[in-house]
Backbone:
């Protein structure tokens, strides 16, 4: 395993037990170090093992059958520690603290069932677990009739490159994420804020220029909204710290 390149898998399996052998071959072929898997449909009574990996999972079992469920597979050679007792309201999640290139990062595999109400407090709790977080999973966000499997990051100073692969047997396409944790791979952009910022100006700029649509019906609309949001924040950052010229 390359110490500076960790490969992470984000995949909704729609049932993991019957796909174990196929997944094992995929993990080996793509050198996957960490796999975040949702809709595992596992139960505590059904044992499943992945040689070379440690399996961390949270199951949802109803009276009739196993449903939902989340898991994280981590190579045994990676230093890791499961974070217990997340105590979330509706979000299904499992979290593991790992070490990437001498930096501790919390990996979260999460599933938001479409039949359960979304609670923002669940996401606030997840994002407050650690300073550096990578959250991957299926949050059932639908845009243009397509469900997007999401990667959320917090304070990760590494390059993360995502690649969707037409492999594995599920109604969701697996996404391979390459995390380059070498110190040379990350270069911060030049700061938009020059000098002491005036946060009142920043706030006024955001309130004046940000246009929030009532709906985002398509992927193209989502991309346009993201570009608009980025531009408004950048302009506000520049405006709030623009040097003031004094007449002499």
Residues:
């Amino acid at each position: 395993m390359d110490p500076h390149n960790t490969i992470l898998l984000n995949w909704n399996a729609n049932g993991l037990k019957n796909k174990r052998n196929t997944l094992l071959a995929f993990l080996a072929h793509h050198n996957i170090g960490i796999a975040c898997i949702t809709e595992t449909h596992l139960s505590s009574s059904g044992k499943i093992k992945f040689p070379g990996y440690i399996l961390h999972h949270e199951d949802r079992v109803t009276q009739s059958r196993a449903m939902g469920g989340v898991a994280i597979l981590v190579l045994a050679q990676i230093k890791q520690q499961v974070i217990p007792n997340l105590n979330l309201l509706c979000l299904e999640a499992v979290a593991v603290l790992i070490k990437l290139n001498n930096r501790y990062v919390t990996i979260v595999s999460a599933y938001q069932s479409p039949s359960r109400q979304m609670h923002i407090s669940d996401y606030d709790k997840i994002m407050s677990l650690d300073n550096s977080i990578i959250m991957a999973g299926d949050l059932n966000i639908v845009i243009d009739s397509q469900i997007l499997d999401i990667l959320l990051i917090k304070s990760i100073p590494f390059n993360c490159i995502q690649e969707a692969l037409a492999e594995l047997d599920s109604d969701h396409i697996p996404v391979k994420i390459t995390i380059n944790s070498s110190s040379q791979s990350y270069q911060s952009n030049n700061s938009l804020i020059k000098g002491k910022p005036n946060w009142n100006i920043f706030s006024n700029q955001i309130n004046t220029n940000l246009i929030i649509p009532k709906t985002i019906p398509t992927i193209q609309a989502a991309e346009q909204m993201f570009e608009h949001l980025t531009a408004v924040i950048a302009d506000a950052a520049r405006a709030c710290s623009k040097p003031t010229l004094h007449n002499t």
